[in-house]
């Protein structure tokens, strides 16, 4: 096999990932801290994320679907994996074969599991205000769950990233459920919920975004480290004359004679057109603003202040998630999960940095 190097790479910082998990774990007090791995670990690569977090002590993981669960096999001994979308008719074979639990999220799913789950363990989601997945509180309290051996009872916060009265209402509803529905563990908080304090942590938290460098609430700012650093290779450096334009629609005009660096990356890689006007990259200590529109797989940066840049050099994109979300209008989640398959995902090698 020939090894064809990619002109795009995501540098992924294992130590930052682990440091973020430890910070989130500490915010949860005595609660265990799990990890949401859905959407291929928010685009970073679920297997690698799981591997690094297991090594750090994390034991509880969450994916969306059975296909995502299957992709994580075999599991390390003692690791728990939950499938957030529960179990449909078509999932039953996977659900009875794989060492993972469905998070039963409707009356029908509970009935299906009772009938065909062969007494295997399950989790249950009860809706306390999101109205997405989960049994209604009345259903849960009205006998729908009687006799079911529930490993973890979950609910999900709808507005935890805001100072909303809904947070307290969902907390109160979940406490009531905890008093009335037996389960081995109780879990309410995502990343933003973790930042709301230990009242929200119960037995197990399930952050996603903040593990991967997102800042869900102001409390996390300054504690959460950037994990993902997208880098693109310069395909060519070209001169532009004052008055010339760059790219589709001629939206950028060179003010003076200068240089642009054209890189192997575009909206097909998840670097969307809304970065135009505010996107930038860095090379050594120089900042290179985006010049003109983003094409499908090409983008140009104004390199007039980076005189020595050459074809083949790597540019590091400005991609601090909170700031990038602010300026682009994309959410931090979209910034992570939108990055496509052409990026080579390269984790910092264990031991390449001194342990913190
Ligand atoms: C995605 C998800 C999480 C993680 O949410 P973040 O906001 O990324 O921390 C936790 N719980 C459930 C049910 C989810 O769907």
CATH class of the largest domain: Alpha Beta
* Gross morphology: elongated
Major sheet characteristics: 8 strands, mixed
Question: What is the number of beta strands?
Answer: 20
**Cα radius of gyration in angstroms:** 23 Å
* Number of domains as seen in the coordinates: 2
Sheet-strand content, in percent, reads: 15-25%
- Straight-line N-to-C gap: 38 Å
| Superfamily (CATH H level) name of the largest domain | Alanine racemase
The percent range for helix content is 25-40%
Small molecules bound in the structure, each named once: pyridoxal-5'-phosphate
CATH-defined architecture of the largest domain:
Alpha-Beta Barrel
The total of helices stands at 11
The CATH topology of the largest domain: TIM Barrel
Q: By helix and strand content, what is the structural category?
A: alpha/beta
The low-pLDDT segments are none
Mean pLDDT, rounded to whole units?
96
GO biological process, one term: D-alanine biosynthetic process
Catalytic activity: L-alanine = D-alanine
Keywords: Isomerase, Pyridoxal phosphate
InterPro entries: Ala_racemase, Ala_racemase/Decarboxylase_C, Ala_racemase_C, Ala_racemase_N, Ala_racemase_pyridoxalP-BS, PLP-binding_barrel
């Amino acid at each position: 096999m020939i090894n064809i190097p990619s002109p795009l790479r995501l540098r992924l910082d294992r130590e930052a990932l682990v440091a973020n998990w430890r910070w989130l774990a500490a915010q949860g007090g005595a609660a265990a801290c799990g990890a949401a791995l859905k959407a291929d670990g928010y685009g970073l690569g679920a297997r690698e994320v799981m591997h690094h977090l297991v090594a750090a002590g994390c034991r509880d993981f969450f994916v969306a679907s059975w296909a995502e669960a299957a992709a994580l096999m075999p599991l390390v001994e003692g690791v728990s994996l939950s499938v957030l979308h529960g179990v449909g008719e078509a999932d039953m074979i996977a659900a009875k074969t794989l060492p993972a639990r469905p998070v039963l999220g409707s009356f029908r799913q509970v009935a299906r599991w009772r009938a065909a789950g062969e007494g295997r363990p399950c989790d249950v989601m009860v809706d306390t205000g999101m109205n997405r997945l989960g049994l209604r509180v009345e259903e849960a309290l009205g006998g729908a769950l009687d006799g079911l051996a529930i490993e973890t009872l979950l609910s999900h916060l709808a507005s935890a990233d805001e100072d909303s009265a809904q947070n307290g209402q969902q907390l109160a509803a979940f406490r009531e459920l905890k008093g009335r529905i037996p389960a081995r563990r109780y879990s309410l908080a995502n990343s933003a919920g973790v930042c709301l304090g230990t009242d929200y942590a119960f037995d197990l938290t399930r952050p996603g975004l903040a593990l991967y460098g997102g800042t869900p609430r102001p409390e996390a700012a300054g504690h959460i480290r950037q994990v993902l650093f997208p880098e693109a290779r310069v395909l060519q450096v070209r001169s532009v004359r004052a008055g010339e334009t760059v790219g589709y629609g001629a939206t950028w005009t060179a003010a003076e004679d200068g240089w642009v660096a054209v890189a192997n990356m575009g909206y097909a890689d998840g670097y969307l057109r809304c970065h135009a006007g505010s996107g930038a990259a860095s090379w050594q200590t120089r900042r290179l603003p985006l010049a003109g529109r983003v094409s499908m797989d090409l983008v140009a940066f104004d390199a007039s202040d980076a005189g020595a840049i050459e074809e083949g050099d790597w540019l590091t994109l400005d991609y601090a998630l909170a700031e990038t979300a602010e300026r682009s209008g994309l959410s931090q989640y979209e910034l992570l999960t939108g990055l496509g398959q052409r990026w080579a995902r390269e984790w910092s090698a264990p031991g390449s940095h001194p342990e913190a």
